[in-house]
Design brief:
With about 600 residues, the protein is mainly beta. Helix content is about 15%, strand content about 35%.
Length: about 600
């Protein structure tokens, strides 16, 4: 049975912890971004959640604890679009894809009950299967999950204990098997999931974020590491044929930047079509996507000794450069330093010597080609000659958003690089695959993957996404008062009427997505970029000290406007009346 690892991350859940994007430990898939909408009234919470992730549909699952048994239902996919429009000054969203209608179908109850686990309900909701369980022992719950194909690390059972002690319920959600190979899978792998709605009783609005600490670890034998050999400075990573490294970055502008790295290989590596030295493209875009179909891509490779760099946008080569007659040193370390920017030709130095460009040269014809979520590859053999058995080494890779001066290039040729304010990625490969950026001395870790049969890990797909130490949280709260949460930014706060609230989502079966009782409510948007390592307790969302609006119209301003207008009219009318009276009855003796 294939195991689905439950990756528990509360990255966008309001009043419950969302174990999101559960997957096989052999092929981990991690959260890219999530959103939640919460309506809270009279002790009842309605939670709508939409998760954006990168992975395979049959490796997807959620684990959702709630303080009481939830009712799992549907909601129109237009809800988040409407909220996006309403809060457009602070939040912009494009391109959500929901390939099938979100429907609630048959209800069944699984025949399972034991001294520690009780399955209360199994329900089909569109392409999801949702099972609600209660438990009295965390290890028994983990065992029950394992028997049904899920993997939750037994060492993290203590994080479930508080929920079990307080008699919370757990909802396990997965993609139904008959949908896993359909268009649903393709859409999910692009980073979209159909929203779910859970309604349950709760005495307070809780954000049990502790479960976001849980991570499905891959065994070292499954993850694999390259050989670390003597490098130009310290150690270096040595990649065998068909192996490559993959990392992840955010908010990368590929139209401007610089790259510095050391490469070592024999003569065979520099002849024919060699692996990509460096590649950046949007998360979810296949490695095998042709240049004519590439949404955005920055690629550098060596072909027959020629160093080539290509930037694709919308299926077009908007920048392509070849550098010929480069005096590569076979079997020795070669330093490559290249800078590029819009509307100019790139500048390449090899071993601290300027290289003249030749061949196909196309100046950059676009600016600000930003990739919000990007995959970074080193040594991809997708376009390489897989029959070649050449090992190559890589060391001291530095990717900046600024250009390299001649002085800086000379320094990089003589000294190991250091990260700066302009650094996107810096990897030293000193016995590890971690990399730094401008904000964090350890921003992530490269994965070692294979484009063919692998003794470490079979090449699975291009949608694996690394476990991020920081993750975005977006929570829309709808209640009788403006809300606040320590460490979160209020990007929008304003009143919304009952009618507008009901119209945020299309009715289903003649019913609105919620049943508000009052005439108006306060809509608050809370956002944060949270670091997992600092999470040690659940969060409580409480009332703000006031109902001051943020990036929204202030209804009191309308009242004051009319009061001022009325006062102005009264004062003006009184002045006119006095003037007329004076003119009609002049003072005596005048």
């Amino acid at each position: 049975m294939q195991k689905l690892g439950i990756f528990v991350s509360a990255t966008l859940l309001f009043s419950i912890a969302l174990g999101t994007l559960a997957l096989s430990p052999e092929f981990p898939v991690y959260d890219v971004g999530q959103r939640a909408v919460v309506f809270y009234e009279d002790g009842v919470e309605t939670l709508v959640m939409s998760s954006t992730f990168a992975g395979s549909a049959d490796d997807f699952a959620w684990l959702i604890p709630t303080p009481n048994k939830p009712e799992v239902d549907k909601v129109s996919t237009g809800l988040f679009s409407e909220l996006s429009t309403r809060t457009s000054r602070a939040f912009k969203q494009t391109g959500d894809i929901y390939p099938v209608p979100f429907m609630v179908s048959g209800l069944a109850t699984e025949s399972f009950s034991g001294p520690s686990i009780t399955v209360e309900e199994t329900k089909e909701v569109g392409y999801y299967e949702a099972t609600v369980v209660s438990a009295t022992d965390s290890q028994e719950l983990i065992r029950w999950l394992a028997e049904r194909g899920y993997t939750y690390p037994s060492t993290q059972g203590h994080l479930l204990n508080d929920y079990i002690k307080d008699k919370w319920h757990f909802t396990v959600v997965r993609i139904k098997p008959d949908f896993a190979d359909s268009s649903v899978s393709a859409s999910l792998r692009r980073g979209h999931s159909t929203p779910l709605k859970l309604t349950f009783n709760s005495g307070e609005i809780i954000y049990p974020i502790k479960l976001s600490q849980v991570k499905i670890e891959r065994n070292a034998s499954e993850t694999g590491v390259p050989d670390f050999v003597a490098g130009r400075f310290g150690k270096a990573a040595e990649l065998e044929p068909e192996y490559y490294l993959k990392g992840a970055l955010r908010d990368i502008d590929i139209s401007n930047g610089s790259l510095s790295l050391w490469v070592k290989a024999d003569a065979g590596f520099f002849s024919g079509v060699s692996p990509d030295l460096f590649r950046i493209q949007p998360t979810g875009q296949s490695l095998t996507t042709s240049d004519s179909n590439a949404e955005k891509r920055l690629r550098m490779a060596i072909t027959n000794g020629i160093f080539g760099m290509t930037i694709n946008y919308g299926g077009l080569d908007i920048g392509r450069w070849d550098f010929r007659n480069i005096p590569w040193k076979y079997g020795a370390w070669n330093h490559v330093a290249i800078s590029w920017r819009s509307n100019t030709l790139p500048v390449l130095y090899v071993n601290n010597t300027f290289q003249s460009s030749g061949g196909w040269i196309t100046p950059m014809r676009a600016e600000y080609l930003t990739i919000p979520l990007a995959d970074v590859f080193i040594g991809s053999h997708i376009y390489g000659d897989k029959s070649k058995k050449n090992i190559f080494g890589v060391d001291e890779l530095l990717f900046n958003d600024s250009l390299l001066s001649v002085t800086t290039i000379a320094s990089l040729f003589s000294n190991a690089p250091r990260h700066s304010a302009s650094t996107h990625l810096l990897a030293h490969f000193n016995d590890n695959l971690s990399y730094e950026n401008a904000e964090n001395e350890q921003a992530g870790t490269f994965q070692l993957l294979s484009s063919g049969v692998s003794k470490i890990q079979p090449y699975y797909d291009d949608y694996n996404y690394r476990y991020g130490e920081r993750f975005p949280i977006v929570i829309y709260t709808i209640a009788d008062h403006r809300k606040k949460l320590s460490g979160f930014q209020t990007e929008y706060a304003g009143w919304i009427t009952k009618d507008d609230l009901e119209k945020l989502a299309e009715p289903s079966g003649g019913k609105t997505w919620i049943n508000p009782k009052e005439k108006k409510y306060f809509l608050t948007k809370l956002t944060s970029n949270m670091e997992r390592s600092v999470i040690d307790s659940d969060l409580r969302i409480t009332d703000s000290p006031n109902n001051k609006t943020v990036n929204a119209p202030n209804p009191n301003a309308v009242y004051w406007f009319w009061i001022i207008v009325a006062l102005s009219i009264a004062i003006s009318g009184g002045a006119v009346f006095l003037l007329i009276r004076i003119l009609r009855h002049p003072r005596s003796g005048a």
